[in-house]
Amino acid sequence: MVVEVAVADGVVDVLSFDGDLTVRTTSSDGVILGPVRGSLSIDSSSGPVIGRHLRASELTVEAQDGAVDLMFARAPMALVVTGDDESIRVLVPDLLYRLEIATSSAEVEIDVDRAAGAPRDITISSTGPVTVARSP
Fold first, then answer.
1. How far is CA 14 from the centre of its chain?
2. Domain that holds residue 64
3. CA distances (Å), 20 to each of 16, 38, 39, 68, 80, in order?
4. For 55-70, what is the mean pLDDT?
């Protein structure tokens, strides 16, 4: 069962969730994620997407007009982030990742171990600055 949430005004604040979740928002207040688990899809046409202590195994974020700032407490198996000229920052546990980053920005910072055959995938597409680093 997939839970879907659509919001046009106000912040979407998901503090705790375990399962399949889809969030669509046009609010400039954005989306805030807490230690959620499961498979998540976030589509924000305006406003930031912020995640702290994430435990999602799969996360897809589409942010058309807002920064993306995600910090994982548990490594995702699959992370896909699509953004525009706003910054994208992803902090993940110190494990091995397969990275695919497409950006026209000269500002790309990578500070994680990576290998083509790694079991965890991070895919980022953006025209803005991108950072992928180890979580504190």
1. 14
2. 2-134
3. 12, 6, 5, 20, 16
4. 96
Domain tally, the chain: 1
The H or E element that residue 121 is part of is: strand 121-126
In angstroms, the Cα distances linking 62 to 44, 111, 114, 115, 127 are: 6, 23, 23, 25, 13
pLDDT tens-place string over residues 104-130:
878 999 999 999 999 999 999 999 999
* For the chain, percent of residues with pLDDT exceeding 90: 74
* pTM of the predicted protein model: 0.94
Q: Name the burial class of residue 69, with classes exposed (0-12), middle (13-18) and buried (19+) by CB atoms within 10 angstroms of its CB.
A: middle
Local structure of residue 28 (DSSP, 8 states): T
Residue position matching structure tokens 């079991």: 119
For residue 80, what is the DSSP state?
Answer: E
